[in-house]
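The instructor's notes for this session suggest beginning with a concrete chain rather than abstract definitions. Hand out the sequence below and ask the class to guess, before any prediction is shown, which regions might be ordered.
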Amino acid sequence: MRSSALGSQRLTSGLPATLASLSLLGIAIYVALDIILGFLPPHYSVIHQPESDYGVGPYGYLMGINFIVRGLFTLACVAALWGRRTLKSRGEWVGAGLLVLWAICSMLLAAFPTDIEGAVATTHGKLHGLLALIAFPAALIGELILSSRLRNDAGWQRFMRLPWIVAWLALPAFLWTGATVARVSAHRGTAGLAERVFLALVIAWIGIIAFRLREEHASSAST
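After discussion, reveal the predicted structure:
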């Protein structure tokens, strides 16, 4: 009884909705900065080169900010799920934990710029690659687990169809990214496009969940 009362208090306090709104704001900032970076020198190719290349150059600090923003809006969404008392089973906690891992790795990428094609390999470039190697599968598996688990939650069952589809669409995008990343080039290949499609699907999933949490609070507040 006491646990139920605490759960209701958290929901009505509006904290999950606030966190969800912050997550959506973070996504908007991230997308805006990513678009701006595409128009700034040295004009990296969005088709051939991965997003991380934006971190190298005169405006590299903006990509560093974006990595941190990506981690923060992910953490805000996970915290909103926890505040709403949606995370109940061990599987849901594992899924959320993997998203937290993705968020932490994303923020750490800001401290370790990548190596541009043709440049001498550096320690920070290798660490960047290792962090990405951890972050990408963590995000994919975390979203797949949460999508599957939340579909069985009575309060989320009808809503989870779209995020479930988005999470599964990220799987072929992830495989596409893996198949192209070994052939990254500034002038050929689709490594940049593949990575951006994967990132777009991962971030879309987070945005859909955050939007659901915000709308749920708005609906409950109006009744």
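Then share the key points. The chain has one domain: 16-222. Confidence is low (pLDDT under 50) at residues 1-12.
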